[in-house]
Fold this protein.
Amino acid sequence: MANLSADFIGIKSPNPFWLASAPPTDKKYNVERAFEAGWGGVVWKTLGSEGPPVVNVNGPRYGAIWGADRRLLGLNNIELITDRPLEVNLQEIKEVKRKWRDRAMVISLMVPCDEDSWKDILHRIEDTEADGVELNFGCPHGMAERGMGSAVGQVPEYIEMVTRWVKKHSRMPCIVKLTPNITNILGPAEAAKRGGADAVSLINTINSITSVNLDSFSPEPMIDGKGTHGGYCGPAVKPIAMNMVAEIARSAETRGLPISGIGGITTWRDAAEFMALGAGNVQVCTAAMTYGFKIVQEMISGLSQYLDEKQLGLNDLVGRAVPNVTDWQYLNLNYVAKAHIDQDACIKCGRCYAACEDTSHQAISMSANRVFEVMDDECVACNLCVNVCPVDNCITMVPMAKGEVDPRTGTKVGDYANWTTHPNNPSVRAAE
Ligand SMILES: Cc1cc2nc3c(=O)[nH]c(=O)nc-3n(C[C@H](O)[C@H](O)[C@H](O)COP(=O)(O)O)c2cc1C
Ligand code: SF4
Ligand code: SF4
């Protein structure tokens, strides 16, 4: 079994799988059972300032999107930060950390945007012996209206300022949790780095309305006839999260800034993909809420087996895909592939034909007895047929060898050449 022990910004855990700040981590009862199941660490549900506890709605707080088999694809919530008294949370954090010394215990924080509030809460959490803090600059509902959460996370200057306060008033490692509700993730990530953050974590949830009730004409979840936008998470957000992680990992300004990857992680493979894109560890919420704490066991055994097969250490995986993430203009325009249909696997449903005929390049023929074949002289290798085919691996993309003639264009497959040197590029023509 590969060694999965992880050291993320000096915070050690037996594996890189942490539970993200959310209901799975909001009390001792949950966190202890999570640790028993094998989770390497937790980010405790976000704590706020001392005072009257936060008030949540007393009706449905979740909405969802499902696949055809009713598998949960996306979850939407309108929950706020912890609604339990600060003192109770602090006592429980202390008790759990004392009992589970080998697990990572990070405390998520969100308090008003003034130095005294941050100084005060940092002072309050000091004797919990927690391993670090995560600054929740991401919550998109409820707290943002009060000038916290994503209201801070959307303004790089505020991120930098608050991170500086935290570093000034605490010796703990500081992770800044970023909101995806922004046009360019690099602004907030750079601000966190400038403020002295030890790491960033992302993503928090995405502003969303998952459905509208067409009888009551209210967004759901519906509270007494009204709805509001909530935070979207789960498998549906994984592609958005991975792109943002990769952007931070490959940008010259933020390269090397440790990243905790979050967003739709459900299996060991999801986790490995985030890590290959530069995440030093991962955090999980929706998958644990959907399937329970024991899903971590599949993550541990799967990642371990994968690393063994590839003969890689955990740290070898981190960032391994980053050099292969590039801008469109550097893709090889001389790479040519063609779709190929495996006739033995084909169930003759015709979906590839409909897709290619109606919306792509009319490159699939259908015979009278429903044999579907790709016409290489029309196929542009767009991959649409692969993605609509219901049979896994029935249609594959086969690259052509260098020197072969592409029957569609009549030209030979050549060496690597990209848009920056392409004769159709106006800037190349202007330079000539
Ligand atoms: C019900 C619910 C409550 C959440 N509460 C918090 C919170 O208090 N603090 C926080 O930083 N993130 C919170 N999150 C966001 C998660 O920590 C995580 O960033 C997000 O759900 C994406 O991960 P996932 O796709 O694995 O769920 C919450 C998410 C859910 C579903
Ligand atoms: S790859 Fe695109 S163009 Fe080629 S057969 Fe499939 S859908 Fe048609
Ligand atoms: S979509 Fe797949 S299974 Fe259906 S006809 Fe095309 S190749 Fe065959």
User: Anything to note?
Assistant: The domain at 328-431 is CATH 3.30.70.20 (Alpha-Beta Plaits). Residues 386 and 395 are 5 Å apart (CA to CA).
